[in-house]
Amino acid sequence: MHPVSQEAIVLGGIDYSDSSRIIWVLTPEYGRQSLMVKGARRARSKYQGVLETFNLVQAIYRKSRSGSLYVLREADLRRHFPGIRASLEAFWAASAAVELVREIGREEQESRALFELLKEFLSVADSPGQGEAGLRTLLVAFRWRLADLMGLSPRLLECIGCGTKLARQDEYGFVLTEGGLLCGACGARRPYPAGTAHSLSYQGLRLVYRSCRRFPASVAELPELPPAELEAVERLCRLYLEYHLGLDPRPAGRGLGWPTGEVVQRSLRNPAQGSRKMNNAG
Ligand SMILES: [Zn+2]
């Protein structure tokens, strides 16, 4: 097989034998790929610092003679995203995004839109001084945009119960299983079983609607939500993706949930743990 050359985003990896490592990457043309990196763990490896999680690289690899695994031949670092590594909040947001892509990415499938979305997300998360609320909002935007790319864009303009165009309300009922909103009248009639309609504020709806259409070039393009409303949209998005993509519900801090303040505090108190995770995520 001829070598393949692809732009690739590193999604993580695991050590393999005393000297090698297997890394997972996302490529535009072939989706998620597992690459064997021989000698990656040696002190004088040419890949030192090149294959860290979140890095954008140009990778050349080919199928191994014996098995189905690909073997990395060369990798050039294109972007390192230092801002993500300098801020714990940006690091958490990027970890959650990368983990989601690792979970839903398909091997050997054209994935250009997903690749571009992740690259845009990392670029925006990399810019300095965004703060926790901004990065959380950005992560929500990333997840809804991803839902749209997977053909799971919710219906946000008409009521899913009666089909009438939705008027402006302070709050809407979002039916998770149907992927859409209820008007006030249908919400009051409660046509769906208890627990299936989740409350979504008007600002929350604006954020979801905006996110599904296009990923922002900066956090400033997104509506700013009060903390409780942001939390509600985060929760709704997480439940929506878990339900429609068949993901396992996970505790906060591992994957889809935003880490609790306590987890962030613990990592801040013990930066060694944070940096180890940063180099070794996965
Ligand atoms: Zn209705």
Secondary-structure topology with pairs:
Elements (H helix, E strand, L loop, with lengths): L3 E13 L3 E8 L3 E7 L18 E8 L6 E10 L2 H5 L1 H17 L7 H15 L4 H19 L5 E5 L11 E5 L4 E3 L1 H6 L7 E5 H12 L13 H19 L15 H9 L1 H10 L2
Parallel strand pairs: 3-5, 6-8
Antiparallel strand pairs: 1-2, 1-4, 2-3, 4-5, 7-8, 7-9
Helix pairs in contact: 2-3, 2-4, 3-4, 4-6, 4-7, 6-7
Bound molecules: zinc ion (ZN).
Question: Can you give a write-up of this model?
Answer:
By secondary structure, this protein is an alpha+beta fold. The protein has a domain of 138 residues. 40% of the residues lie in helices and 23% in strands. A 5-stranded mixed barrel has the order 1-2-3-5-4. The chain is elongated. The site of zinc ion (ZN) has 8 residues, from helix 5. Zinc ion binds next to helix 5.
The spatial strand order of the largest sheet comes to 1-2-3-5-4
Helix content: 25-40%
Secondary-structure element series: EEEEEHHHHEEEHEHHHH
From the alpha-carbon coordinates, what is the Rg to the nearest angstrom?
A: 20 Å
Alpha-carbon distance between the two ends: 29 Å
Class of secondary structure makeup: alpha+beta
Oligomer: single chain
Instruction: Enumerate the spans where pLDDT stays under 50 for 5 or more consecutive residues.
Output: 251-257, 260-282
| Main sheet overview | 5 strands, mixed, barrel
- Report strand %: 15-25%
> How many separate helices?
9
Q: Could you tell me the number of beta strands?
A: 9
Residue-averaged pLDDT: 86
Shape: elongated
